[in-house]
Amino acid sequence: MNKEQLMARRDYFNQVHGVTMRAISAFTDDELGFRPQPGMRTPRELIFHICGQEKLLAEAAQQGRFTFEMAKGSSPEDQSNASALKGLGTVGDALAYAAACHRAAEDIFGSLSEQEIARPIESPFGTHPAWQYFLFAYDEHWHHRGQLYTYLRLLGKEPPMLYDYQAVGV
Question: Helix 3-25 crosses helix 43-63 at what angle (to 10 degrees)?
């Protein structure tokens, strides 16, 4: 994948992210703590993970490596993230966090040169070109957004239409 192709996919991801922002907006502050059953993540924890992972994967592409320690940075179960997770106390906080993480990833991927996009990135999960880390973030986003949609339905709410890409700030 070259830079032009990566940026075209980022443009689409921006639309997907806009729909996710609307899904986050559909929760109330109290519903961010909704846990369908023990051991499942809450919407707050999912938002922390989805958005943190996007930023961390972009940072890995920029830095040339991805480690288990870096991966822990998006894990709501890791105690080192307790204060950051607590900072997502309201829907407004969650939206601000999601926007900041997405913007950081957007800036990083946008700043990579053709050579940096193609370079191999070492990780405990194998070696992949930097552009693949964007695809990892994209896949992770869709997967966990599906969980958010399920939670909205369990709370009696209609999630935003999956492909309703109306203009929403990223």
Answer: 160
pLDDT for res 167 = 52
For 101-155, the pLDDT digits (tens) are 999 999 999 999 999 999 999 999 899 999 999 999 999 999 999 999 999 999 9
Structural domains in the chain, sorted by start:
3-154 (1.20.120.450)
Tokens of 26: 């559909």
Number of C-beta neighbours around residue 145 at 10 A? 21
Angle at 47 between CA 153 and CA 36, to 5 degrees: 40
**92: left (phi > 0), else alpha (psi -120 to 50), else beta?**
alpha
Contact yes or no for 46/148 (Cβ under 8 A): yes
Q: How far is CA 95 from the centre of its chain?
A: 12
Contacts of 23 by beta carbon, 8 Å cutoff, 6+ apart? 145, 148, 149, 152, 159, 160
Q: Are 51 and 97 in contact (CB under 8 A)?
A: yes
